[in-house]
């Protein structure tokens, strides 16, 4: 291949036995979740959370589909690029995950071995820019408020995406930007999705469309957190069983 393209993402465990290793890498990353005694506490948290996270993955098929979707996107991308840019063809994509296999460092090694590198393109698999792009990938959802003090434009990038989508829809519906997947005790961006859904239900809103605006493929945060925790469990909690209130994904 003449041009190598590295697709970067957080990744996810493909099988049940991969869950602990995924969590250990995730909580060991001080750029993602800074912890005191990072190594020791990360090991304790990963061990403690593994059974619960395994159950969640079991409910969505046993593992994360993010590698499958990334590969499908990569294949479609290089086929299109071969047509649009024959001068840099052939193109080959490589998948690099931060917390699951294939790890980014292994993907880079593959590129060095198999690609006659005219040019290497980096493609982070999330549509809004964040300081985390410099660290390959972090969360594509809410983030620590302390990071915003360092000038991270992520909230503005997400808000701009929402604005353009609603402009294209001619603002046909009322809308609100909310955040998900808060981890740990530190303050995160808000409002959180769960609180927003409960508030809308109290205001007698009957139908709600949740749009995961910052994701390019399904994974546990869409398939479990949105589809199950919000669209099923939370919808039931706010009286979906006695009213026409629904959450649509």
UniProtKB/TrEMBL annotation:
Organism annotation: Nematostella vectensis (Starlet sea anemone)
Full protein name: Ferrochelatase
Family of this protein: Belongs to the ferrochelatase family.
One example GO MF annotation: ferrochelatase activity
Alphabetized UniProt keyword annotations: Heme biosynthesis, Iron, Lyase, Porphyrin biosynthesis
Metal-binding found in the keyword field: no
GO biological process, one term: heme biosynthetic process
GO cellular component: mitochondrion
CDD domains found in the cross-reference section: Ferrochelatase_C (cd00419), Ferrochelatase_N (cd03411)
Listed PANTHER family: FERROCHELATASE (PTHR11108), FERROCHELATASE, MITOCHONDRIAL (PTHR11108:SF1)
UniProt KW Lipid biosynthesis keyword: no
Pathway info: Porphyrin-containing compound metabolism; protoheme biosynthesis
A UniProt-annotated Pfam family: Ferrochelatase
